[in-house]
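Regression test case RT-17, inverse folding.

Input:
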């Protein structure tokens, strides 16, 4: 039986993917085989050496200590695209409220309480202070054209916007999903220079952290409106506050609350609502649990942020063993595996090896049971991070 620890409330429809005859699931559990998590911070957790996988019910993985887990051979999954529609809709709302000061207008209108029959006339007289531009005819810059960015770009076109996108890692799948009217920029500077609105849809990495800063803002149009529903660290808050004070930036809408951003003019702060819809939570939970199940029971890896995609449709040989081996991507490693198995007179019926940067992963099907002493020999290879047998 596999033991699964949940660090957040995971939607029941996701947990139902895991058969209770084969899975024990609890928030407090000893020595778990895997972890299901949403936003809980795992960086300070004492992680059991028994953990084989972590599945994040969401796209971002900043809350997970990926380098440490990779070194231990722990596969980290996420659920790209499962919450894309929820985030897309929130981005469009952010574009609208960055243009039309609806929140201020609502606050002002509520302040008319108690004035009775005067309210309609007062409202008419006061409405001029809440004028804002239409989206139609304006240019939207979309930085990052993955699942969410592509959906935002396509929908913005339906609002009558001109859309320019930038993504140096644009996948074939994403490219095919884009409306042909979305213009693709060769550089970020082009997006900055041409956009009336900018929305960011990239992960936070060493290269993207603080990408919206004093230098990049200087190249933007005066009065640009910036939407950040991706990651808080993508925007340098001190720099953008300076730009807001000068009027260089007209409005910031962010999904990432920080002390310095609260109660500031032309800053709209939300409490990380991007995927906060029941539909998105369900989709993410189902996808995360399904990926975890496929890995634990069959060794397959899909949508991992630290291991290569590795999938086999082959059944585990009757009476045989499937070896799931992660190791450093170093020459001559595979020959060590075949030598050890050959010396043990174990026939290899199927062998899949995939690599991603410095990490490699193997699914090796063997006719016969691989004993503990053979597993120990495989694990003792100096490049190996983890050896996991699945028996049939």
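Golden output:
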């Amino acid at each position: 039986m596999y033991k699964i620890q949940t660090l957040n409330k995971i939607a029941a429809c996701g947990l139902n993917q895991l058969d209770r005859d084969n899975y024990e699931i609890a928030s407090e559990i000893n020595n778990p085989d895997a972890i299901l998590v949403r936003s809980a911070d795992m960086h300070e957790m004492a992680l059991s050496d028994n953990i084989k996988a972590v599945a994040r019910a969401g796209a971002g993985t900043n809350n997970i200590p990926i380098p440490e887990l990779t070194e231990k051979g722990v596969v980290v999954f996420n659920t790209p695209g499962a919450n894309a529609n929820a985030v897309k809709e929130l981005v469009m709302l952010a574009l609208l409220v960055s243009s039309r000061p609806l929140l201020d207008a609502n606050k002002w209108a509520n302040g008319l309480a108690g004035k009775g029959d005067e309210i309609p006339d007062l409202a008419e007289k006061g409405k001029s202070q809440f004028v804002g531009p239409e989206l139609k005819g304006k240019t939207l810059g979309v930085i990052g054209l993955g699942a969410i960015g592509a959906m935002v770009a396509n929908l913005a076109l339906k609002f009558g916007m001109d859309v320019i996108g930038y993504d140096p890692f644009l996948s074939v799948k994403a490219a095919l999903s884009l409306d042909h009217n979305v213009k693709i920029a060769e550089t970020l500077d082009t997006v900055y220079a041409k956009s009336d609105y900018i929305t960011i849809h990239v992960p936070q990495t060493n290269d993207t952290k603080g990408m919206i800063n004093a230098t990049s803002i200087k190249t933007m149009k005066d009065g640009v409106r910036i939407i950040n529903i991706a990651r808080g660290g993508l925007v340098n808050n001190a720099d953008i506050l300076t730009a807001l004070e000068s009027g260089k930036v007209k409005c910031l809408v962010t999904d990432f609350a920080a002390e310095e951003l609260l109660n500031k003019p032309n800053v709209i702060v939300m409490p990380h609502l991007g995927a906060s819809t029941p539909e998105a939570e369900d989709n993410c939970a189902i996808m995360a649990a399904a990926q975890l199940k496929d890995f634990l029971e069959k060794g397959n890896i899909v949508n991992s942020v630290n291991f290569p995609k590795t999938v086999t449709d082959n059944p585990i040989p009757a009476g045989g063993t499937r070896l799931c081996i992660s190791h450093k991507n170093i020459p001559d490693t595979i020959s060590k595996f075949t030598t050890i198995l050959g010396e043990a007179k174990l026939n290899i019926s199927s062998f899949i090896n995939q690599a991603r940067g410095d990490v490699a992963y193997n699914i090796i099907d063997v006719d016969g049971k691989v004993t503990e002493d053979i597993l120990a020999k495989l694990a003792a290879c100096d490049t190996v991070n983890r050896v996991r047998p699945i028996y049939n």
